[in-house]
């Protein structure tokens, strides 16, 4: 019987090797491409014929736009709206990756730490560069809590720097763990349902309940990743 972890194995679809480096097109890359294509199709179709009374696709696109825009305004301020395209793309990419991973036979690329860490590292580098570009060396005052006596700065500053540097780790591990654990649990109960045959009614009910919960978690994880990105952007734009 297949292991519940088999669904996370990255398999090459088109083997490619250049100078000894494995650059194969994998199932992970395939579902990333499918996610990007699905997002592009949704946005293009939803905005192709903008109507005063929006149709279903236009409503979905407009709701997505306003949801992310309000998230940015609430957490990063209006100044953060100039970075809307990046944050909107990040939110939609994670959301579609999570949701498409619910389809049987698909591949959830957000269940791999290398993918989530790369996205988190890009966020970390981007907001840090924005902070230095806007404030110069004054950006380093982010690590000196306002109102704290200078006598305890030697203790507080290293703690603040460490807290800042672990942001990409916490950001990536949260998404990775939730997607990995949820899909593994669903696979375990699905295995029980098949193994029990006609007596697998109870595990089947649990699978149905877990599917609803997993859809909610898939959305929440995309939201949490994005809202924390907005919070980090706020720190870079406005410091304390």
Task: Describe, in plain words, how this protein is organized in 3D.
The protein is built from seven helices and four strands, in the order E-E-E-E-H-H-H-H-H-H-H. It is mostly helical and 240 residues long. Helix 2 (56-76) crosses helix 3. The strands form two sheets. A two-stranded antiparallel sheet has the order 1-4. Strands 2-3 form a two-stranded antiparallel sheet. The chain has one domain. The protein is globular and about 70 Å long. Strand 2 and strand 3 form a beta hairpin. It has helices at residues 27-48, 56-76, 84-100, 113-135, 153-165, 167-196, 201-238, and strands at residues 12-14, 17-18, 21-22, 25-26.
Features:
240 residues; mainly alpha; two-stranded antiparallel ribbon; two-stranded antiparallel sheet; 7 helices
**Helix/strand structural class:** mainly alpha
Number of helices in the DSSP assignment: 7
Shape: globular
Strand order of the largest sheet: 1-4
Number of strands: 4
When the domains are counted, the total is 1
The overall pLDDT, averaged over residues, is: 89
What is the share of helical residues? 55-70%
Largest sheet: 2 strands, antiparallel
Termini separation: 54 Å
- SSE arrangement, N to C: EEEEHHHHHHH
Rounded to the nearest angstrom, the radius of gyration is 21 Å
Give a short overview.
The protein has 7 helices and 4 strands. The protein has 240 residues and is mainly alpha-helical. It is globular.
